[in-house]
Each structure stands twice: as structure tokens, then as C-alpha cells.
Amino acid sequence: MGHGVGDGMGHGVGDGEYGVGDSVGQCFWVSVVVVGWVGLGWVGFGLLVVVVAAAAWWWWQWAVWVAGFLCSLVWWLWFVWVGGGVISQSKPVTALTLQTNSRWIVNEAGQRVKLACVNWVSHLDTMVAEGLNNQPLDAISKKIVFMGFNCVRLTWPLFMVTNNSLGSLTVRESFQKLGLSQYISGIQAKNPSIIDVSVIKAFQSVVSNLGANNVMVILDNHISQPGWCCSAYDGNGFFGDIYFNPDLWIKGLTQMATLFKGVPNVVGMSLRNELRGQSQNLPAWYRRYMPKGAEAVHIANPNVLVILSGLSYDTDLSFLRNQSVNLTFTGKLVFEVHRYGFTDAKIWEYSNANQACANVVDIFMRSTGFLLEQGWPLFFSEFGMDQRGTDEQLNRYMNCFFALAAELDFDWNIWTLGGSYYIKQGVTEFEETYGLLHWNTSEPRNSSFLERLSAIQSPFQGPGLREANPHQVIFHPLTGLCVQRKSSLEQLSLGSCNVAEAWSYTPQKTLSLKGTNLCLKVVGLGKPAKLGNICSDSGSHWETISDSKLHLSSTIGNATTLCLDVDSSHTVVTNTCNCLSNSRICNPESQWFKIITSARSPSSIKILEDPSPKSQKSELIVKVPDEDFILN
């Protein structure tokens, strides 16, 4: 995720074109050649001399090329004696240690680092990261970067590190033991370096390669016994269950924290996924185990964030409202929460969409979201949806979620990266409909969803953003886009939130374009909304209505109330407000807008092309600003 030499994305020094007679330009160009060859050592440098001499003979630009050669020599000496001698895309760059500042996660400079993570499953029966039979490890890491993620939540089973008979298995032996020999040839072909190393070494290789691609890692203890999670009766749910020995858990956390101490891209450890079951209880959580696990991790590896989960499948942290966790350290504690559409399935099934969204947000705020208000970082470490997009209730939940995620701007992790598992609950090649990628092609299952997701990958708020004066943007959850002007016209359309218009929502309920005398105005039913400079009439006053508070309404001369909407061309229009009644079958999502506070600088965006050689089309993804990266 860094930008410059060796960023793994095809962007670095030397992208420009320089004339043959321009000595400065030639120096720059030849320097790039040196940088490219220096990874080969002295042999590479010798070859460079031949290349430069041949070029000089060909073009007869002796003076220019001598100057370029001398400049290149300086570059080479600097990289060898000062920079460590090698420039390599596989060599990770030192990361800044993360810490907490009130509700924010920040780097050592105090600038916000937003965790925008994707889950990579490595806790199932094989104890091997999924997809390595289909794609080279480095290709997967680069695809993660291309999709805009700066972080991976990498899951691991406790017994992999506490049971030597499991942890010492080679990758080949692990698959053979499970009767999954059909995957071995694929792994050997795509990732030959890991096929005959232990599963723990293979896990380390995944972490290392993610680091080489400047991707942060959260290590998540997902389960004890390798396999699918989670059932209330699987013996892995709470301290004291048959597969959940607390002392062994502390031992495993300590081993894992120690193993990755000093690994620069491992920035956090999640103590345990989805505590649950009939034996869960607050005294055990508070007085015995979670603080003890947190202390053990911090002692073994004081650099990492320590992430604590709640009860009831990590949906409930309400007990923290009036009773904090007592720890000996500060500046490292983060809480996590999970919530899916199916978590509140009955609400979505039996309620009007506006009512359902309001109810789900209220439950979230009462059970976990209040921690943000109290000044604690909250990591939304699992959410997701069926990437086929066929479940209407889940789709509505995601629209509600996007509005909440943009407004609260919390850190998050989406479930999950891959579209299948080697084996899940006895079924091989099990399809994961929540997976973002087809493993066999490494192409997205739902590219429009990824485009929406890009809207919340970079921070809207937090310490260190370039924009000194926060403003507001009008966010459209259904598309992940924001309201902006159509070129120089008065009409408005949807576009990237990274270059969205800066608005001010005044106490008079006008939406004024910041720095101008223009405001948002309603024209009529089915007509485009426009900008105008008369901002005192009823058609320029905008109220948030409906239970969800996601409708923006205004009135025209005959007292008709209209709501902001979007047509098929992404033009912002006004239509009759939809789904304000109790109907369960209406669909209001095109009319859902959220006014959110933003400190983004509209000019600070990066556009990168897909590095995948198999890509058949030119894809563009808006990347987060440089300041949001922790690996430079």
C-alpha cells in the first residue's frame, strides 16, 4: 500500500518520460535502471555498465550519459550502503506501531489509521489459508491491495499452536490426513514453497507476504479445534467448554503473540471469536479470563492492539456501559462487534424497511455502539452479505449498514475473501456465497458491491486528515456514492465520495454548498434537484424524515412533500416519498441519503489499475490517501 519504489503495484520512480538530451531526466531514468538491477547485486551492476555504455555509443550523447552514469553510481552506493543493499518487492517495510487515541486508532505520529480489512479464513480443518491451490500467495495479496483493503483479519485455530501433532504437520500431510489429496497438486503448482513446510510455517508465510505487500494483519483466534465456527454446542463457545481450556487458551495466545513479535505488519490480536453458548457468563468474562488473556498478549507483544469480543456471538458489549475492563496497560485496547442481516432476521422480515433499519441501529447502539460515544475504538470485525445479491432482506440490511458505517466511520472487517473452502463440515469445495472472489479466476463475484465498499475504506473523520475545516457530504448508501455537481451545471448527480461536494447543513435546514451562496432546491415531481441562490423559501428546506431518518424531504409551492431520489442515470431528482407507511413490501433504498461529517480532502485520491495479468478489462478503484497507510 505504499507508494514509490517496490510498492508491488507497478507504481514507483520512473513512471515519467524524459528526453535523451535532458541530463536530469536521463539521470532519473538511469537511476531507475540501477534500482531495478541492484537487487541482483554486483552482477546486476556490471550488466548496467554494459547497458549504459551501449546506450552512449548508440546515441552519441557522451556527456549526458556520463552524467547519468555518475548519478546512477551515487544512487547505487546510497542503496547498498545506506538502504541495506537490496530493493525487493518481497521485503516488507518497517511499520509504525498502532495505538489508540480516544475512539480512534492512530499511528505514532498521531494520525488516524482506519482498519479496512477483509477476512482470510485459515482456521478450518486443514489449518491452511484458503485458495492457495488456485492462486499464488503473492497474487492473492496483491488482489487484496487492489480491492482497496489495507488489512487482513487472518483466522487461526488454537490447537494449531498448542497441539504439536497438529502444528507440526506439513501442508501436504494435513491435506493427506483429511483425505484431500486432490488439492495437493494445485498447491504444489501455485505455491511450491509451502507444500512441505509445517502449517504454522505456512501461516507465517501468508503473514510475511501480506507484509511484503504492505497489508496489515489482525490475528484472530477463531476457534480451538480446527473446523467451522460457530455453534452454541460445538464445545468451542466459552471458557470451560470441552475444547476451550482457559489455561491452554492463554498459552496459545502467548505463543502466537511471541511468534509474531517484531513482525511489522502484525498490528493486532483478537483474543477470541464469538463467545457463546449456555455457559457464557459475565463474571468469567470480567474477573477471570478476558483481562487475563489481554495481559498475556500485551506482555508477550506490547506493540499489538488487543481486541476484545463480547458475548452472544459478539453482538453484546452492553455490560461495559457502566463497568470498564481493568488492565495494567493503556493505549492498546479495542473492542469488536459482529452483526449480519441474519442477526436480526425477524426484524427485517416483519417490519417496514425504514422501521427495521431504525430498530437495528438502535439495538446496535445500545449493545455496542455506545462505546464510540464513550471514547473507545470499536472494530466491526464481521459483517457481509450474499454476493449473489438475491436475498432482499440481506440487501436492505447492507444499505442500512452502509449508512451507519459512513456516519460513525468505525474500523471494520468484511467476511470474507474467498468464494469456497477446501472443506467445510465434511463437504469439499464448499461454496461461500459471502466470498468476494472466485478463487479459480481471482475475479470479484460482485464488482458493484466492491465499488460501494470503496466508499468507506478511507476515513471520513479522525486525527491527521488534511482537511482542516470539516464539512458534510450527502451519502447514498445504495450506491456508495455522494451528491456532486454535474460539471458546471446546476444539476446534481452521484459520484465518488472522495471528490464529493462540501455541504453545510444549517440550523435553518438548508443544504448549502460550502464557500458559495448556493443551496439545494426542489423543482418538482420527477424533476432534477438543482442549486439556487434563493435559500429562504420552503423548497430549499430539507428535513430528515421516516423512522430511519434516511429520507431528505422538502416541499413545493402547493405544500406537496417530495423526497430526494436518484434516477437510472444517477441524476439526483425528487419524487413522492416512499415507504413512510407500515408496508413491508415497498422499497425505499433509492431515497435513502445520509448527511455525514467529513474531513476528507477531495483532491487526495489515488487511482490504481488492476495488477492482475489475467484481468480482461481496465478496472479502477479509488484508493485511500497516502496518509492513511501505516507502511511507507
Automatic annotation (TrEMBL):
Q: What Pfam families does the entry give?
A: Cellulase
Q: What is this protein called?
A: Ricin B lectin domain-containing protein
- List the source organism: Lithocarpus litseifolius
Q: Which residues form the Ricin B lectin domain?
A: 469-589
Q: Which UniProt keywords apply?
A: Glycosidase, Hydrolase, Membrane, Transmembrane, Transmembrane helix
The biological processes this protein is annotated with in GO are: polysaccharide catabolic process
Q: Which family does it belong to?
A: Belongs to the glycosyl hydrolase 5 (cellulase A) family.
This entry's Gene Ontology molecular function terms read: hydrolase activity, hydrolyzing O-glycosyl compounds
TM stretches of this protein: 28-55, 62-81
| Record keyword Transmembrane helix present | yes
Q: Does the keyword Hydrolase apply?
A: yes
